[in-house]
């Protein structure tokens, strides 16, 4: 389990859920803009470049909002790079554990920075990148991490992500513009500082060759307990000591606490397990609509969950036996047709949905809690499902 992060229901109590078809995601643009304002403040006080990691959230419609705050996007390959160029503004930094030969020309055309994961790939593709005048970077594995769950630790000793820093001496840095590392996951500033202190002596000899250093994502900057002032001091300090432009590429922090997933209770059953005596089947399927609930795993916060009462196991409509969201307290048994709302469901959900069992994707709404304006962004139909197959 990742450490539990305090999730606030923000302004969602003001939303009239009876107006909404279920299941649906609602993204509060007011919260997104508040998160972005904090990032802009950090930019103004440090001149750090901030890129949106599209892997966390990539709705095209958010592109125009981002352009007022951020410097660009980070992409994970051809499709995200094309999406970035078409719908988002600014610089596109593309990294993949391995690029495909037949895609590289197009990736290069849609990117400004290309970051390689190995010396093989660097050797194979750097001429294509350089002849198109884009910056080349290498990802290094800091082999320092405070991420406890192996599957979420990109900086383990045996990780496939990034070049071991002992190999840096084998690189001709005269042809390299930047270094990238990503080893954080939902972490506060101290982890970044500890990581930097670990790798500093290893990368210091190369600063003189570099234009930029990319500190990856995983910075939980918009969480109330995040040490923003220390981050600002640190970013200013490393810009001065390295004489490089500094980049960060957060995903989650931009959308933290901005989204909910609204569902409906379809049926209520008695359970054979006396510890959780009731089961509710909802139209939210964790395997289809919030896969990290099963993958991480974690228990999403249910809005207005009672502190006592009857325990209900909420499950989804798919045939997967384990398609359960979790066990929750209800003051009284939920009724068929009742709405349920899970908090903090904007990032790493919409980008991961699938049509398993033919279960439809939730509709997507933008909502501005300040103006109480609701806009339907996308509604999925049979044709969307049919088209995929
Ligand atoms: C290379 C890289 N950059 C940025 C991110 C974004 O991380 P987060 O959404 O936690 O900020 C990730 C997430 O996995 C990543 O792998």
User: Quick one: biggest sheet?
Assistant: 8 strands, mixed
Please tell me what the overall shape is: elongated
Number of helices: 11
Which class best fits the helix and strand makeup?
A: alpha/beta
Residue share in β-strands: 15-25%
How many domains comprise the coordinates? 2
Which fold name corresponds to the CATH topology of the largest domain? TIM Barrel
Please report the total strand number as a whole number.
17
Walk me through what this model shows.
By secondary structure, the chain is of the alpha/beta class. It folds into 2 domains: 12-26 and 259-345 and 353-388, Lyase, Ornithine Decarboxylase, Chain A, domain 1 (Beta Barrel), CATH 2.40.37.10; 47-255, Alanine racemase (TIM Barrel). Helices cover 26% and strands 23% of the residues. β11 and β12 (278-282) form a beta hairpin. The longest helix is centred in the first third of the chain and has 18 residues, at 29-46. The chain is elongated, with a radius of gyration of 22 Å. The two termini are 34 Å apart. The structure holds pyridoxal-5'-phosphate (PLP). Residues 53, 55-56, 74, 95, 182, 185, 216-218, 249-253 line the site of pyridoxal-5'-phosphate.
Q: What are the key terms here?
A:
single chain, Lyase, Ornithine Decarboxylase, Chain A, domain 1, TIM Barrel, 8-stranded parallel β-barrel, elongated, binds pyridoxal-5'-phosphate, 17 strands, 8-stranded mixed sheet, 2 domains, 11 helices, 389 residues, alpha/beta
